[in-house]
Write a structure and sequence with these properties.
By secondary structure, this protein is α/β, with parallel strands linked by helices. The protein contains 19 helices and 16 strands. 48% of the residues lie in helices and 14% in strands. The strands form 5 sheets. It has a 5-stranded parallel sheet with strand order 2-1-3-4-5, sandwiched between helices.
Length: 448
């Protein structure tokens, strides 16, 4: 039986909620104010805590912080009255699972609690299996407990033992090569070679020679015959990073190699049989590339057997504490330091969109650990600093960031009007997550 705690300084409200939840077979305790809520919530005795936002000397944010500091897997739902939505959105940034606006129905309450319990259960399973997963599945470098990362890990476990071709898509810096390595490490080819190649870093001519090899005298400088990387990787896994950067001519040759399981060295006609699993990755939209005649449709269908779409870091901010801890520990050990994070760092980074994703976050922490003087990393050490305007620059209100903010504000306000103020519908119209919408509204000062 799930155990819940209700924190509210209004006795009638506590009693009503307790009756609803006990009627749904939950075990329920009550806390009459924020102080009691902080004390009881920190014990770890509860699966879900429902706390009113506005209370006395200690409010719902104080309860949330106290709970998350000592019991990060306990889910907190904030109850808010009309007119305090901004504060509820702020609570989401501090780790609240969700908020519910008064007055609400019993069905609405039970749905919210049910989702919170599902999330708590999944997080608990990942926590219990974390050590086993890392040892058994070699997931040491894939950090996070968000739903999107749990789904990626689950797919790796299911897909890896097969020989299915894998296509990994996602923005730069989201960890595509880490996923490719984890797939290889959990496959039956794990004891053979994993061969990565960055297609964007090599010209077409060299790429063909590198992959397929060449015969002696095939071109100027080919003094001896040479095996290609495909042959070297025989029995293992070949990882094509930035596959969309290749030419249509090369794509045709690669398609044949994949379909026939054979290669021909440059300058030779004799085919050579190879047994290689293919994993490809790109940060581009391949369907757009196909429409623009930059990528072969037949190669796309051949690669798109098992698809992984990696989330951007801005879509999984709940993983920031784990990622920060991981990178801080990594670079403290590497540099022999004992640097720690100031309290405001996580809050500051939670409002940042990370255009460079996890790679950018890692660089931030590495640089801060290397340069910080007193052993404490502050928000100023990690947050990107605005550049000084150049002499003769355009007047205020015409910088790129201001133009982007203005466009975002107009798009969000339009979407909210068209959806009658529903944030969920507005997020769907804008094709972003509800969490991303709340964060942008908070940053831009949009109230609706």
């Amino acid at each position: 039986m799930a155990k819940l705690l209700i924190v509210d300084d209004q006795r009638n409200m506590r009693t009503t909620l307790a009756m609803m939840l006990r009627g749904a077979a939950f075990e329920v305790d009550e806390a009459e104010n924020g102080e009691a809520g902080c004390e009881r919530g920190a014990t770890g005795a509860y699966d879900v805590i429902l706390t009113d936002l506005r209370m006395g000397s200690k409010d719902g944010i104080d309860v949330l912080r106290a709970v998350k500091e000592s019991q990060p897997t306990t889910e907190v739902i904030v109850m808010t009255a009309y007119g305090t939505i901004e504060s509820a959105v702020e609570a989401m940034r501090f780790g609240a699972f969700d908020y519910i606006q008064k007055p609400f129905t019993e069905q609405e309450l039970l749905v919210k609690v049910g989702k919170a319990l599902d999330n708590r259960r999944l997080a608990g399973e990942v926590a219990l299996l974390a050590t086993e997963f890392k040892d058994r599945y070699k997931f040491e470098n894939i950090v996070g407990r968000s739903r999107s990362i749990r789904e990626v890990l689950g797919r790796i476990v299911r897909i890896a033992p097969t020989d299915a071709i894998v296509l990994i898509t996602g923005e730069s810096g989201t960890g595509k090569e880490l996923v490719a390595k984890a797939i290889h490490a959990n496959s039956k080819r794990a004891d053979r070679m994993f061969v990565p190649i960055n297609c964007a870093a090599i010209t077409d001519t060299l790429l063909e020679s590198e992959l397929f090899g060449h015969a002696k005298g095939a071109f100027t400088g080919a003094i001896n015959a040479r095996k290609g990387l495909f042959e070297e990787a025989d029995g293992g896994t070949f990882f094509f990073d930035e596959i969309a950067e290749t030419s249509l001519t090369f794509q045709a040759k690669l398609l044949r190699a994949i379909q026939e399981n054979e290669v021909r060295r440059v300058g030779e006609n004799r085919p050579i049989q190879v047994n290689v699993r293919i994993i490809a990755a790109t940060n581009q939209d391949l369907l757009t590339a196909i429409a623009e005649k930059r990528f072969r449709q037949d190669l796309y269908y051949r690669l798109n057997v098992a698809r992984f779409q990696l989330p951007a870091l801005r879509e999984r901010h709940e993983d920031l504490p784990d990622l920060l801890s991981y990178f801080l520990d990594k670079y403290n050990r590497k540099m022999g330091t004992k640097t720690r994070l100031d309290e405001g760092v996580l809050e500051a980074l939670s409002t940042y969109d990370f255009p460079g994703n996890i790679r950018e976050l890692e660089h931030m922490i590495e640089q801060a650990v290397a340069l910080v003087q007193d052993g404490i990393i502050t928000r100023d050490d990690v947050m990107p600093q605005p550049e000084e305007p150049a002499r003769g620059s355009r007047p205020p209100g015409h910088t790129l960031s201001e133009i982007v903010d203005g466009a975002e504000r107009q798009a969000i306000e339009t979407a909210l009007r068209e959806s009658d103020g529903s944030r969920e519908k507005a997020a769907d119209l804008l094709r972003i997550s509800a969490t991303t919408l709340w964060r942008k509204m908070t940053r831009l000062g949009i109230t609706y």
